[in-house]
Specification:
By secondary structure, this protein is of the alpha+beta class. The chain contains 4 helices and 12 strands, in the order E-E-E-E-E-H-E-E-E-E-E-E-H-E-H-H. The longest helix has 22 residues.
Amino acid sequence: MVEKFKNKYRIQSHRMPGWDYSNNGIYFLTIVTQNRKCIMGNVIIDKNTHPYVSLSDFGKIVNNEWIQSFEIRDEIFLDTYIIMPNHIHAIVVLNKNKMNDTHNMDEIHDMGGTHVETHGRASLRANRSKQQNQFVRKPKSISSFIGGFKSAVNSKIDDFIDQNNLDIPKYNRNNHFFQSNYHDHIIRNNAEYERIKKYIINNPLKWDNDKFNPDLRNQT
């Protein structure tokens, strides 16, 4: 659903009403660049190899900050991810119980019975303050993780722009590298986990028909 906010149209959040995103769970996350600009890399299609993404300088910075975001946090773990030209897809595990590096889905919000091997750490979501009537990020939540990651990306890319004397606008509160919103989905069972993981891995292969591909939108 689209609604107006400050005379601009925006898409309402896809977050589940009533769900506390600081709770333990396995999440499918999608983070998109501002205006869906393809500035993080290019999809390389070679008949001799599986399609892959060749990261740009900005894409390499995003990748480094993404990995580091998990390394500096104990409550969130990275399972599977891919950086596409204008978006990131990832499966992450939020687990405040810190259950080492392997998680049983039965132990993560009663979601099933498989093991998820994880490769990193981090957290995210916004709750509405009754006193201030505004969104605030809970510590060790999905939103706090994403907020910290986006801020780090803005800062590191601004440093890169300065160091290389690039004649392009820097990123700040009025010029974001990523869209302010993001999409999240709670993974509820093993079948859903396997389907989403396969989707992430095969994302470069499906780029020509990807809804985030600006060339596809221009053809319609």
